[in-house]
Amino acid sequence: MNAKTISIVSYLTIIGWAIAYFSNKNNDPKSELASYHLGQSLGVFIFAVILNMVLTVAASIIPSLGSVLSLLGLIPLVFIILGIITANNKALKPVPIIGVFFEGKFDF
């Protein structure tokens, strides 16, 4: 796979991330684009897990807000779509709001 494809696949579920990771690992010259988007997509997945845990706890404490809080669970989907668009444009731009927290944290 080329770097653009690896970057896009890394945002498609955690299984897609694993496929992209091993594809990039097997490439002799590591692609900066693929490595950057692997880090960003892993950051989005970590954020999604933490957000869903917080929303689950909040919904169990205040059940009447459950439907409103469930809409907040769609935020990671928006970040994934924005990450795919950025990867398709071959840009090394972080995912909005949370992307700067994950820049340089992972070494792929």
Describe this structure as you would to a colleague.
- The chain is mostly helical and 108 residues long.
- It is 70% helix and 0% strand.
- It contains six helices and no strands.
- It is elongated.
- The relative contact order is 0.18.
- The model has no long low-confidence stretch (mean pLDDT 93).
Question: Top keywords for this entry?
Answer:
108 residues; mainly alpha; single chain; 0% strand
| Number of helical stretches of at least 4 residues | 6
Structural class by helix and strand composition? mainly alpha
The description of the largest β-sheet is: none
Share of helix, binned = over 70%
Q: What general outline do the C-alpha atoms trace?
A: elongated
Q: Give the tally of β-strands.
A: 0
Strand content: under 5%
The stretches of 5 or more residues where confidence is low (pLDDT under 50) are none
From the alpha-carbon coordinates, what is the Rg to the nearest angstrom? 15 Å
The succession of helices and strands, N to C, reads HHHHHH
**Mean residue pLDDT:** 93
Distance between the ends: 16 Å
